[in-house]
Amino acid sequence: DVDIVAAVAERGMLVINHAMVRGGRHLGDKAHFPQNAQDCAPEEALTAFLEQHYADHPAPPRVLVNLDVDAECEAILGGMAGHAVALQRPRHEMERAWLAMAEKNARHAIEGQAMLKANADGRLERLRDVLGAAEPLRRIECFDISHTLGEATVASCVVCVDGAMKKGEYRRYNIAGITPGDDYAAMRQALERRYEKVAAGEGVRPALILIDGGKGQVGAARAILAELGRADLPAVG
Fold it and tell me: How far is Cα 27 from Cα 24, in angstroms, rounded to an integer?
């Protein structure tokens, strides 16, 4: 029983490929793209992955790695697993083949991610042409109003950056003090709360605001942005 973990950095991306062998059978692998790892050395990313992954998953007695890791990592993994865990380089031809496969699959994952990004960039450029936008649509913020029979109104904001959804930047706003079912008032409150900070020079300015609604909702949104001194922010419905 052994795990194979390889860290590969190419094309400005870093991927960790993790494979499992149990009873001598290769059970497949999975590519992981650690967040905010672009400026991290592959050795550091590999060490961090091992310590985080095996905090939640049982570690086998041996883990094959393609890079040197922190000297304390073995002791940390052993403490979590309750038995010795050896971090090793391949010892014979089959293990070298397993590690080579892990590195190859890591590079395939990077190629796939690069293609997805290129496709996303192309779609954003086509959208920019359709809208006649003056700048690349790198950041899009989307607003929606929901309620239960007019009560418990909530506004949600989801964020897309460079064609990828950024769940860590999603926001929910509990709406209060409005007439039940008044979506215009709810949208006003949400946009005020979100873009007052941008108007004050704080927070990140979006390239496009997407409103769930038609002409009425978009007109109301543009009026609110104008009141905040941010009529420059384009809004579409």
Answer: 9
Query: Which residues are paired to 173 by β-bridges?
Result: 155
Q: Which amino acid is at 228?
A: L
In the DSSP assignment, the letter for residue 231 is T
For residue 197, which amino acid is it? Answer: K
Q: In degrees to the nearest 10, what's the CA dihedral of 127, 128, 131, 137?
A: 100
| Other Cβ atoms closer than 10 A to 44 | 16
73-81 and 42-56 helices, crossing angle to 10°: 10
pLDDT digits (tens, 9 = 90+) for 9-60: 998 899 999 999 999 888 989 999 998 777 789 999 999 999 999 999 999 9
Residues 6+ apart with CB under 8 A from 151: 180
What residues contact residue 66 under an 8 Å CB cut-off, 6+ apart? 5, 6, 7, 8, 46, 89, 99, 102, 103
